Amino acid sequence: MTAPLRLVVIGLGARARTWLKVIAARDDATVVGLADPDAGARALAREVFPSAETAPDAAALLRRVEADAALLVTPPGRREAQIEACLEHGLDILAEKPLADDVALAARYVAQAEAAGRTLLVGLNFRYLPVTIAYRDALQRGLVGRAEFARFTYERWRDGKLSHLNKYPLSMPHPMLWEQSIHHFDLMRHVYGVEPERIDARCFNPSWSMYRGAANVFALIEFAGGMQLSYQGTWAGGVDRLDFEWRSDCSEGVLIQRDMFGELVAARRAERDFRPLPLAPHEPWITDAAGLLDMAIGAFAGRGPVQCTGRDHLHSLMMLEACIRSSERGGPVEMEEVRAALRTAPQ
């Protein structure tokens, strides 16, 4: 029997509690170390893994414990020392998205991991939702033909002051982009299987927003091959609810995802009524995290497909950068402009 993957978990806030629950349910992975500057957070996490070593930071923890991989569940703007410590100790890394809050810095992390010969993955868990798998499969099978235009809406009142949510997004310059739209942009690239070529975006705040940075993102995204997508995302919706819809109009019909975690329907052009597509059972936040961890364990062991890599993630981060540039100048941005800037950025 193969020994369980020995994980250290760096950062023990709200998201880490989900990860600890998912890991505890497995026999092919275990947590041997826990790091967080908050002693209370360390004690709470140790209730799930009582034998795990604890420390206030990654460097101190990795001096005390031997591990195979690290799970980074820390804010994206404070990871330099954590990633350096993990790579110095020969660990593979699964980092919560986004990898960094700056594209050039993320590219530097990717280069450092590649130079060290370690695998760097990013926690894009929504790829592993049954509805995402079914959406992508339907397009690949040509169920309703080829997607040519689409609309993606995510409208939510997100009270960033709630106790179970991380607080750092409240002060980010672009919280919607870096914390939420990054998932949506990754899903677009993953499901459609094409890369964006041009983005025209506006990032802003309504008067009632509790966020310091832009909680609203409106964008027109043109993908390779000519497909156009209209995107509207907000954490400052005018009513306390989440409304989600992802509609793709295709050459022979339409696909619509009506819920963030499910409800995928399809109709061909001659059909007036949409029919539901079958989805595997799932538990929100758990099934998708478990699927991501399945992939990561296989990738780290060299026995499975390597997905959600840091290098692939750079393409989604560049979409965020294009949105920021477009909003600042009030006009469209060619993706090649952002790619060229990244190629010349110091590593």
Polypeptide structure, described:
This protein has 347 residues and is of the alpha/beta class. The chain folds into two domains: 5-96 and 120-125 and 289-307, 3-Layer(aba) Sandwich (Rossmann fold); 127-280 and 317-329, Dihydrodipicolinate Reductase, domain 2, CATH 3.30.360.10. The chain is built from ten helices and 15 strands. It has helices at residues 14-24, 39-46, 58-62, 80-88, 103-116, 130-141, 175-192, 287-301, 310-329, 335-344; strands spanning 5-10, 29-35, 53-55, 69-72, 92-96, 120-123, 147-156, 196-204, 216-223, 228-234, 242-250, 253-259, 262-268, 275-276, 333-334. The strands form two sheets. Strands 14-13-12-11-7-10-9-8-15 form a nine-stranded mixed beta sheet. The protein has a six-stranded parallel beta sheet with strand order 3-2-1-4-5-6, with helices on both faces. Strand 9 and strand 10 form a beta hairpin. The longest helix is centred in the last third of the chain and has 20 residues, at 310-329. The mean pLDDT is 96.
